[in-house]
Write a structure and sequence with these properties.
The structure is a single chain. This protein is α/β, with parallel strands linked by helices. Helix content is about 40%, strand content about 15%. The chain contains 15 helices and 13 strands. The protein has an eight-stranded mixed beta sheet, sandwiched between helices. The protein has a five-stranded parallel beta sheet with strand order 2-1-3-4-5, with helices on both faces. Helix 9 (about 185-195) packs across helix 10. The radius of gyration is 25 Å and the shape is elongated. The relative contact order is 0.12. InterPro entries: P-loop_NTPase (IPR027417), ParA/MinD_ATPase (IPR050625), Rv3660c (IPR022521), Rv3660c_N (IPR059050). This is Septum site-determining protein Ssd. Pfam families: Rv3660c_N (PF26563).
Length: about 350
């Protein structure tokens, strides 16, 4: 993969750029003159030009391209915009004030195969509704269809969705390793750090860890997920904490799993009252109960995305550390295929 190109002889500026690029997980190609830069000009994902070389670069009339920045350490340089226009740059970056912005620009330049993943939140309308099982099965089915999928456990008290998958001992980062991060996370770095199984990456908790997820950590993970995955499935706690609210506000769709009985519907209506403050596209997954489906759906007041029949052997299967089969002719497999067609129509 090609690296960002820097054109400058200003050693202080170069030191700053190397440090800022390192914060974004990037390495640089450095040219001290326009002649040295010529072989890299069209190949580099991004070009940063120092004011000391701007006029020299302009004199060579380089081909027009995007992702060119003029970077200056003088925030009051009156000549910066003239030099910016002369080299065909799209913006002037003034250090140190624009340092965080430059970190993000370097990180953007290093993102391989940028994607625009869809975020789907799943939450139980009442205890024991099966939201975690739906989350895990949906993620597994998507990854089995060669969709790059991120499964996020957002419930510190949920027992661990990695345990539900039977992979609680898998090596890789957990929430406790990420919560101290502020700002942008590289999608490729996130994928490399997390436990992965084929096209499925899983972010859960260390055993015994019950600390809340900071909302800024959830934000960084979901932003990285959108750039690096096709689908992000977030298993939410029923009691919304700030991290869950952060996920809801960024979700394309939120699925609420509930049973069609009186207490299940009443509980789910309460949950929906809170969800509606933060999420726009709310849909229900109905499990059979004493109420008919039409009455249950009318009581919820949201569209029914799918109907999940009872799975008589599900409890025994999960207690063996297994998940039910998700083939196209199975109950859960059919449900997941239908949901994926709605969530990812492309």
């Amino acid at each position: 993969m090609h690296r960002p190109l820097v054109i400058t002889e200003d050693h202080d500026l170069l030191d700053d750029l190397v440090r800022i690029a390192a914060a974004a997980g990037a390495q640089l190609d450095v040219a001290h003159t326009p002649a040295h830069a010529r072989p890299y000009w069209n190949l580099a994902p991004m070009v940063a030009i120092g004011p000391d070389q701007a006029d020299a670069v302009s004199a060579t009339s380089p081909p027009t391209r995007d992702q060119v920045l003029l970077v200056t350490r003088d925030p009051d340089d009156p000549d910066a915009w003239r030099k910016c226009v002369a080299v065909g740059a799209q913006a002037v970056v003034r250090l140190p004030g624009d340092e965080r912005h430059l970190v993000e620009r370097f990180a953007d330049a290093m993102e391989p195969e940028p994607r625009s993943g869809a975020v789907t939140c799943v939450i139980g309308g009442h205890g024991g509704a099966g939201a975690s099982v739906v989350s895990a099965c949906l993620a597994l089915r998507a990854s089995g269809d060669r969709l790059r999928t991120l499964l996020v456990d957002a419930d510190p008290l949920g027992g661990g969705i990695d345990a539900l998958l039977g992979h609680e001992e898998a090596a890789g980062a957990r929430w406790g390793d990420l919560v101290a991060r502020e700002g942008r996370i590289s999608s490729s770095a996130l994928r490399a750090a997390l436990p992965s199984f084929g096209d499925l990456a899983v972010l859960s908790f260390h055993r015994g860890e019950v600390a809340a997820i900071p909302p800024q950590a959830m934000r960084s993970v979901l932003e990285a997920g959108r750039r690096g995955f096709d689908l992000i499935v977030v298993d939410l706690p029923r009691h919304l904490d700030p991290a869950a609210v952060e996920a809801l506000t960024r979700a394309n769709t939120t699925l609420t799993v509930t049973t069609a009985d009186l207490r299940g519907i009443l509980s789910t209506v309460q949950v929906l009252g809170e969800l509606g403050k933060h999420a726009s596209d709310l849909r229900a997954i109905l499990r059979p109960g004493v109420l008919d489906e039409e009455t249950a759906a009318q009581s919820l007041g949201i569209p029914v995305a799918a109907r999940l029949p009872d799975h008589p052997r599900l409890t025994a299967t999960l207690n063996r550390g297994e998940l039910p089969k998700l083939g196209p002719r199975t109950v859960l497999g059919t449900l997941c295929v239908s949901l994926l067609q709605d969530l990812l129509p492309a």
